[in-house]
Amino acid sequence: MIVLDTNTLVAALRSREAAAADGVVMNQYVAVALAEKLATRQTAQHFLAERAARGSVQRALEILEHAGSDENEAVTVSRINTQSFAG
Fold first, then answer.
1. Which of 2, 23, 75, 82 has a 20 to 30 A CA-CA distance from 33?
2. Is the pLDDT of residue 77 over 80?
3. What domain range includes position 20?
4. Same structural domain, 13 and 49
């Protein structure tokens, strides 16, 4: 026997209602939602990979070093080994 919690049941009912409102069966609705989720994830991964390729660990550390509203609050990151960021 499968036991579902209240949140899962509510989500299932809302999904069924949304599928009906879109005029599709539940399986099609779920398949499209999953495809959209995967496409969004892939787009984000590509964007972040491209951005990382243009980035500079040294420049990021310099920015963090000067963060804060005054010198007492500045973040000290010079002790961080920059090799740990290389990937």
1. 2
2. no
3. 1-54
4. yes
Both 44 and 72 in a single domain? no
Question: Can you give the pLDDT at residue 87?
Answer: 47
Q: How far apart are CA 63 and CA 69, in angstroms?
A: 13
Do residues 57 and 86 make contact, with C-beta atoms less than 8 angstroms apart? yes
Instruction: Give the count of domains, the chain.
Output: 2
On whether the pTM is more than 0.85, the answer is no
Helices 6-22 and 26-54, axial angle in degrees (round to 10):
100
